[in-house]
Design goal:
Structural class: mainly beta
Helix content: under 10%
Mean pLDDT: 91
Number of domains: 1
Number of helices: 0
Distance between the termini: 43 Å
Shape: elongated
Length: 82
């Protein structure tokens, strides 16, 4: 039982945790398809297919961030504090 997750490059970002580098990386443009993976009716992670390969890669739920872009803000005439 898996469900395909629709990813729109304009409005979504997919961040994948790289264990070797210990940091999050943007994988949005390299992903061909992503499916939620279930075990005993609970989501445990994601099966990800990257462009250029038919092989699936399993990522734990904690290693994938699915983000929605809310809106773009023009900061040309704004002060930005970080």
């Amino acid at each position: 039982m898996s469900q395909k997750i629709q990813i729109d490059n304009e409005n979504n970002e997919v961040l994948l945790f790289n264990k070797e580098k210990h940091k999050w990386e943007d994988g949005t443009i390299s992903i061909q398809a992503i499916f939620s993976a279930y075990y005993y009716k609970k989501i445990t992670g994601y099966n990800i297919y990257f462009k250029g390969t038919d092989k699936k890669f399993f990522y734990k739920k904690e290693s994938v961030l699915l983000l929605n872009k809310v809106k773009n803000i023009n900061i040309e005439k704004q002060d930005v504090f970080v």
